[in-house]
Design brief:
By secondary structure, this protein is an alpha/beta fold. Helix content is 39%, strand content 20%. It contains nine helices and nine strands. Strand 7, helix 6 and strand 8 form a beta-alpha-beta unit. The protein starts with a strand and ends with a helix.
């Protein structure tokens, strides 16, 4: 798995912190890691972006960012408003493939959900994943509404013949409600893919050293972690 594409079921689901956790676990396992942010929106040139945040939390990763636009919008819209060139899926695939020649693992982080548009032709992260023939990790929210968005994402991946590596809950609440607890069992069923982790709420606010030490415990062995989905399900069962 030299390239792993990471998408969310929407915005604010914990995608960047999950990317950082996957990177930290891979580094702890002795792998070299690169993080590619396809398009950064809503950030000024002098501000840190998502790739910088991954590096801050995870440690010694190579970071790359193909473009950034000031408005917090979908990349295609943000590029148009800024009168700048958009990022096209072949550019994302080419950059990721180049990084893969120099690293054990390349994490390609999208913007929002799988079908958010990067250019005026309708190019998406899914198109880049197709070009790369890379598996896709889906980051989902824990609570009510997540089953619909997760299943829609999974169906689109399968329609395109893409591998859904699994689902990670991007922010597991300290006091989960009934919907969240039921979703632990339901997310794998609606996605047709394993649950590969659950990050505790507020994980991104940990000190970097504590984040790196804890990251493997939030992720399953396929992601270089020690998290046990079965034990988690039993513990959180309603």
């Amino acid at each position: 798995m030299p390239v792993l594409v990471i998408t969310g079921t929407g915005t604010e689901v914990g995608k960047t912190v999950t990317t950082a956790a996957v990177a930290a676990a891979a580094l702890a396992a002795g792998r070299t890691v690169a993080v590619l942010k396809a398009a950064q929106t809503g950030v000024r040139p002098d501000e840190s972006g998502d790739a910088d945040e991954v590096a801050r939390l995870a440690g010694a990763v190579t970071t790359a960012e193909l473009a950034r636009y000031p408005d917090p919008l979908a990349p295609a819209t943000a590029a148009r408003r800024a009168a700048r060139e958009p990022v096209h899926p072949p550019e994302i695939a080419e950059a990721a493939a180049k990084l893969a020649t120099e690293h054990d693992l390349v994490l390609v982080e999208g913007a929002g959900g799988l079908l958010v548009r990067f250019d005026e032709e309708g190019g998406t992260l899914a198109d880049a994943a197709e070009l790369l023939r890379a598996p896709v990790l889906v980051v989902a929210s824990a609570g009510l509404g997540t089953l619909n968005t997760t299943e829609l994402t999974a169906r689109e991946l399968r329609r395109r013949g893409l591998e859904l590596a699994g689902v990670v809950i991007g922010s597991w609440p300290d006091s989960p409600d009934l919907a969240s607890r039921c979703n632990v069992a339901d997310l794998p069923e609606v996605s047709g893919a394993p649950l590969l982790g659950a990050l505790p709420a507020g994980a991104g606010r940990l000190a970097p050293a504590d984040f790196r030490a804890s990251a493997p415990s939030w992720l399953a062995p396929r992601l270089d972690g020690t998290w046990d989905a079965e034990a988690f399900g039993v513990r959180e069962a309603p």
